[in-house]
Recover the amino acids of this structure.
């Protein structure tokens, strides 16, 4: 009990300055704009921007100090009359492409954006080739059944009419 | 002292692993086995001098009798358990002379989390993986012994030999990269404390599931390589693989589900999937195991798709291993602070290159000699399952590229970029949607060959019902964007297709003279578990789409007594009290939850402060209602004296968790029925 009390005391000694300082939480009420249309746009933009000190979190989700600053910055630009793209450009100009959760299309990311398309095309070609080969093999292999196979087939058909289950 | 014993056990594990690799490999097989049988204990430490090592000698003596097949695997498992026990002991008694303990633990950490802390640092995680591997190793020996026809075969011994080699390689990697049993010359007075984010029951539970899953993939890998070596990728091989694929799938799935729920209940994270490196490296092996699961079924039924199944069997472990490397290395996130125990992951990467270089070379050499069985038509169940596995692998490939692309780019040009959720959503939706569409057909298709018009007849009920769902939703909620609507529609399509197929099978006319329960028997455990898993996926997708559309978020600055409206719920904020946890102080808010002005529950979101690390964590509190989750979290005090409160109302979110649970239940059901069948000694494979 005494140990807990000590922890508590010690903890509060450290917490108190934190309590007094600015609140930090994803989207605080005091950051929000009174204009609901602008606020909605701000939320939309925030979801596209990365919190620079977190792992793949948008600034909308993050409660880091830096994310808060970015959220405030986004709202300032919106109030100043920028449209969504201008706000994003403004932030990218200062923090680089790293801040965008959706990587922009540029020479460095051509491969990234092309890869899904290339993979899908390759997969389609491979599947197509696979079926072509199957068809060719199949037509030559299953021309006729041997006597044994025919007997086995009759036996199977005679005993069970059920098709298989996965 | 115990730590040194553990260290020695780990060393012996490597040696015994090499011993198993050599003794079970076909080249040495006959001669070495003859050497082994008369004097069981001699051959075990293959090359080690006679240490006065009573632990192992005892066990070796007792297990030598039943079968030589068990001798080495049992020894390895016992050694592994000994090493793990030594490490756990060091964490439980807080032995700070071990830098691994002082890096991540503290004397005030509760016992459960001190145990959990043993799995978080690199060395501890590798050791857990090794123990899981040696368990799999013994189970594999057990299974291969049970299948009499393969036990004397080179196939089983090859598989065990490869597993032994894997254990040896991973053991060496552990010793080189981050040896958990090193002592510090000067012990600190206390540890640095465990990361507060990891002090969570679910997080502790996740680790054993994750490493068991990865070890299961190693079992699959060993079986596949053995099959390639012996040119035995056939129906019997598929039958042997069955329990391994399903068990690994369930373990990895459980780890993913736990991880998702954990992100969800951490307020700071809010959502449940962020596409970050550690999540992706969990998802990748699971995707490939799912693909393997389907191919294996085709291989077992029709002896086709040999090469593709073997490829997936190797690749599943490859991505699991590589993901382990990515999360363990400091490539993405630099290690937070300087640690006493230097850890490095180069060994893991080198091991990866060696193992998979050889494995893919072997695959490439033997894939051409693999004949394929009878053919199947484009419209057939084999075809549907094959296409499904191709699409799953495609998703895996895209996720892998998205994960490593920023790394490679940064390495080449030095410019950092981010690949985040919007990228994955944009790119994966065009692959996932057709997959879901095709998935619904598979259970209703016949093997080998089917007719389009026949399928049309079987699927028409499902098609009509899912169209009605889409129409209803789109009329009821007119301003909906198309993507979630398509998600809901496809979920409905998969769900109704699964149910209507089940219905059709249940009400099929029984043959003359058969009892009416015959239909129920014909379903079989495999069909039931498959249907459960498919329905689970449909429910998961419906829940995910719906909660993303109808989510409501309220952020306000609340004062005591204030009431907050979210969805059908009303939350009344009562105030914040300061409490002490076992090793943290917490500000706990009390909310009373009303639904239609009736009190339903009390919710207690917290902000915890962990003095040892000086870190605050936020713990949301979640109410799982019938129609949705209510997710409440609190922030700091506002400038005007109120408390920042964030309330999310996520309708249909319980569907997401329920769907995950259904998929896992499906997998467990399949394993359980098989185990029961085995125990009853029916002698026939399940279903």
């Amino acid at each position: 009990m005494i140990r807990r009390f000590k922890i508590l005391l010690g903890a509060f000694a450290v917490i108190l300055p934190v309590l007094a300082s600015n609140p930090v939480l994803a989207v605080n009420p005091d950051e929000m704009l009174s204009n609901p249309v602008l606020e909605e746009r701000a939320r939309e933009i925030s979801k596209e921007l990365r919190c620079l000190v977190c792992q793949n979190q948008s600034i909308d989700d993050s409660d880091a100090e830096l994310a808060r600053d970015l959220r405030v910055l986004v709202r300032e630009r919106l109030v100043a009359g920028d449209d969504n793209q201008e706000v994003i450009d403004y932030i990218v100009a200062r923090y680089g492409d790293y801040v965008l959760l959706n990587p922009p299309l540029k020479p460095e990311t051509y491969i990234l954006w092309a890869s899904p398309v290339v993979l899908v095309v390759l997969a389609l070609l491979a599947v197509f080739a696979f079926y072509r080969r199957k068809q060719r093999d199949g037509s030559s292999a299953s021309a006729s059944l041997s006597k044994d196979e025919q007997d086995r087939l009759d036996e199977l058909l005679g005993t069970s009419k059920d098709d298989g289950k996965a | 002292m115990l730590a040194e014993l553990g260290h020695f056990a780990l060393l012996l594990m490597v040696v015994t692993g090499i011993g198993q690799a050599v003794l079970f490999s076909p080249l040495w097989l006959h001669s070495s086995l003859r050497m082994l049988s008369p004097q069981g204990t001699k051959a075990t430490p293959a090359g080690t001098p006679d240490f006065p090592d009573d632990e192992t000698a005892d066990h070796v003596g007792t297990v030598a009798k039943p079968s030589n097949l068990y001798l080495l695997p049992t020894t390895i498992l016992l050694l592994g358990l000994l090493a793990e026990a030594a490490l756990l002991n060091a964490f439980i008694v807080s032995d700070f002379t071990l830098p691994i303990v002082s890096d991540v633990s503290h004397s005030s950490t509760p016992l459960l989390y001190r145990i959990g802390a043993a799995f978080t640092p690199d060395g501890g995680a590798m050791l857990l993986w090794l123990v899981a591997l040696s368990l799999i190793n013994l189970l594999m020996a057990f299974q291969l012994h049970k299948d009499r026809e393969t036990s004397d075969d080179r196939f089983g011994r090859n598989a065990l030999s490869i597993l032994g080699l894997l254990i040896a390689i991973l053991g060496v990697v552990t010793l080189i990269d981050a040896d958990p049993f090193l002592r510090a010359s000067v012990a600190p007075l206390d540890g640095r404390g465990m990361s507060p984010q990891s002090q969570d029951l679910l997080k502790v539970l996740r680790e054993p599931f994750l490493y068991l899953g990865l070890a299961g993939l190693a079992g699959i890998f060993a079986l596949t390589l053995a099959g390639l070596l012996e040119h035995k990728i056939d129906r019997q091989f598929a039958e042997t693989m069955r329990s391994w694929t399903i068990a690994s799938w369930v373990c990895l799935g459980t780890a993913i589900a736990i991880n998702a729920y954990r992100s969800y209940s951490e307020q700071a994270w809010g959502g449940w999937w962020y596409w970050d490196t550690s999540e992706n490296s969990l998802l990748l092996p699971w995707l490939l195991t799912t693909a393997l699961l389907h191919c294996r079924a085709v291989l077992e039924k029709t002896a086709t798709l040999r090469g593709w199944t073997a490829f997936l069997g190797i690749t599943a472990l490859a991505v699991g291993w590589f993901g382990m490397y990515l999360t363990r290395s400091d490539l993405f996130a630099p290690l937070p602070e300087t640690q006493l125990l230097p850890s490095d992951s180069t060994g893991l990467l080198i091991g990866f290159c060696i193992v998979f270089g050889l494995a893919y070379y072997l695959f490439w050499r033997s894939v051409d000699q693999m004949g394929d069985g009878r053919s199947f038509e484009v419209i057939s169940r084999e075809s549907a399952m094959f296409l499904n596995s191709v699409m799953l692998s495609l998703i895996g490939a895209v996720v892998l590229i998205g994960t490593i692309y920023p790394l490679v780019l940064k390495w080449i040009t030095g410019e950092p970029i981010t690949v985040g959720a919007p990228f994955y959503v944009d790119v994966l939706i065009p692959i996932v949607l057709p997959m879901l569409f095709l998935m619904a057909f598979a259970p209703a298709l016949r093997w080998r060959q089917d007719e389009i018009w026949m399928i049309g007849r079987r699927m028409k009920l499902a098609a009509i019902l899912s169209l009605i769902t889409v129409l209803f939703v789109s009329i009821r909620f007119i301003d909906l964007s198309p993507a979630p609507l398509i998600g809901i529609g496809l979920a409905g399509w998969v769900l109704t297709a699964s149910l209507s197929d089940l219905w059709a099978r249940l009400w099929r006319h029984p043959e003359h003279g058969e009892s009416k329960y015959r239909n129920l028997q014909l379903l079989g455990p495999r069909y039931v578990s498959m249907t459960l898993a498919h329905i689970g996926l449909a429910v998961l997708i419906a829940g995910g789409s719906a909660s993303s559309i109808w989510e409501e978020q309220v952020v306000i600055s609340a004062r005591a007594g204030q009431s907050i409206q979210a969805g059908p719920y009303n939350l009344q904020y009562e105030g914040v009290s300061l409490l002490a946890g076992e090793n943290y102080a917490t500000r706990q808010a009390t909310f009373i939850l009303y639904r239609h002005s009736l009190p339903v529950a009390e919710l207690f979101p917290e902000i915890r402060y962990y003095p040892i690390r000086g870190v605050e964590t936020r713990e949301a509190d979640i109410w799982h209602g019938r129609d949705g989750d209510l997710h409440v979290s609190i922030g700091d005090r506002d400038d005007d004296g109120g408390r920042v409160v964030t309330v999310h109302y996520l309708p249909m979110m319980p569907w997401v968790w329920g769907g995950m649970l259904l998929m896992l239940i499906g997998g467990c059901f399949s394993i359980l029925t098989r185990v029961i069948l085995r125990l009853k000694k029916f002698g026939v494979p399940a279903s």
